[in-house]
Amino acid sequence: MAAKTTGSPAERHAARPSARERLLTAANELFYAEGVQTVGIDRVIERAGVAKASLYNTFGSKDELVHAYLQARHAATARRVRAAVDRHETPRDRLLGFFDAQTEAFAGPGYRGCAFIAAGAEAKSGSGTEQASADYRAWVRGLLTDLARQAGVADAEALGRRLQLLYDGAAVSVRMDGDAEAAAAAKAAAAALLDAALAAQAPESGHRPE
To answer: 205, 150 in Cβ contact below 8 A?
Structure first.
């Protein structure tokens, strides 16, 4: 016996993901797994189950679809990072919580490295892809810098840059080397850099790591 359909036609229609949502879901699955240049528009359309006109009416071009895909990943990463940071109370632990979020990402199913590094490596100069990747990287460095400043580091920008190098390196190590300990190593190195920065300025400020 066929399953009984519940809800009115209007309710069932409202519950169905929009063409935009289906296109972004398909793009996320395909672009992340195989690369934004490898995957053609026709495959995204087929996976999403929409007409080609829907893609162009919604996004205008493949570049804009890739841009939107990366913006969606940026938003999801920001939510995960904020949740990991906000689990902690002390400024030191909040900064290191940033790397806890990376550990969670590495442990997720189908992790294939940083989507922004991969997409940015293939991006044309001036494209939406390049801009989305640049925006994400600026956000990573900016948040790490802010967290370093909140932890009492005088030269927070310098430490933020070094922490971003650790963050990038861990992602590359997991993807390229299959290093299961990369996240833990990055967090330990981040803790050492933070403590060294605070210790170096301690004679002036009297600040000690919490």
So the answer is: no
- Are the C-beta atoms of residues 99 and 167 closer than 8 Å to each other? yes
Q: What's the chain's length in residues? A: 210
For 179-203, b where at least 16 C-beta lie within 10 A, e where not — what string? eeebbeebbebbbebbeebbeeeee
Q: Which residues of the chain have pLDDT under 70?
A: 1-15, 203-210
Residues contacting 95, CB < 8 A, separation 6+? 85, 144, 147, 148, 150, 151, 163, 190, 194
pTM above 0.90, yes or no: no
Specify the DSSP class assigned to residue 5.
Answer: P
How buried is 99 (Cβ within 10 angstroms: 0-12 exposed, 13-18 middle, 19+ buried)? Answer: buried
Which amino acid is it at 35?
G
Find all residues with CB under 8 Å of 121, minimum gap 6, and list them: none
Torsion sign across C-alpha atoms 114, 137, 86, 184: positive
CB 147 within 8 A of CB 91: yes
